Amino acid sequence: MTGNDNPYAGSFGNQMTASASFGGQPPAAAPPSGDLIKETTTANFAKDVLDASRQQPVLVDFWAPWCGPCKQLTPVIEKVVTEAAGRVKLVKMNIDDHPSIAGQLGIQSIPAVIAFVGGRPVDGFMGAVPESQIKQFIEKIAGPAVDDSKAEIEAVLADAKALLETGDAENAAGLFGAVLQADPENTVAIAGMVDCMITLGQIVEAREALTSLPEDLAKDAGISAVAKKLNQIEEARKLGDPNALEQRLAANPDDHEARLMLAKIRNVEGDRNGAADHLLTIMKRDRAFDDDGARRELVSFFEVWGPKDPATIAARRKLSSILFS
């Protein structure tokens, strides 16, 4: 693979450019190198690389025993990965024993290092590059080392939330992940990371992340809100075709069951105002339906949207006029 036909040449870091820099305090000690560097096989590639990269970036070093530049790169990249203190993992793959993955990625020359984030390749380089370039590559992929400075962590969390609000879930996840390296029990970062998974369509992974949390963390208000969001998405997926529900309402505007289901679907589609209006319509027509179920569902929406969301504010005003008119 030459520089011209390397699909990653000249592009490393462009896929995920957000990074976090925490000064003032020394970074946490690196985990044991055995936790950061390992060999893999074709059979274990999915677990060691694809699955692992959903938690933190994974660098895959494609090498062979006869490759001189590979022998030059090995001690340098292992040193840099160890010093990165757990921000990335290194997985080594002998292409003589396991050629298929390298072939699928179009690798024709070694050493070749490909970075995986979120289960997919995002960047790479080839050749026995200097230590300084490997450090730069890791910073592009994972961001500089972080520490536990509270003020700076708060600033990074704010940046991550802003990115997520604009739909840039991948870069937001990079920042949330950087915070979690410094503070693994930071509930704001945990909730943000799960929200990123949801935004990226990683519903199964999001559920697994929530299920694995200790009970005391799961009770946090922010984590509870994102768990309710996930519950709403999972429920809405079982409610059928929204077009069919619209047809039911066109035939019978008092089909409150159809309207309630449609509200749940519109909510997870992002049409918050439309979802709220359907529930408010049910309340206007029949407060007793489903034991005041429309109001309860609307309150559940508010908990996920947050009190400052424009849809929450608008719907609360309409709700008040119904309740107190």
UniProtKB/TrEMBL annotation:
**GO BP annotation list:** cell redox homeostasis; response to stress
Asked whether the UniProt record includes Isomerase among its keywords, one would answer no
Cited InterPro entries: Thioredoxin, Thioredoxin-like_sf, Thioredoxin_CS, Thioredoxin_domain, TPR-like_helical_dom_sf
Residue ranges of every copy of the Thioredoxin domain listed in the record: 25-143
Q: Which PANTHER family match?
A: GEO12009P1
A GO molecular-function annotation: protein-disulfide reductase activity
Q: Which PROSITE patterns match?
A: THIOREDOXIN_1 (PS00194), THIOREDOXIN_2 (PS51352)
Record-given protein name: Thioredoxin
Gene encoding this polypeptide? trxA
CDD domains, from UniProt? ybbN
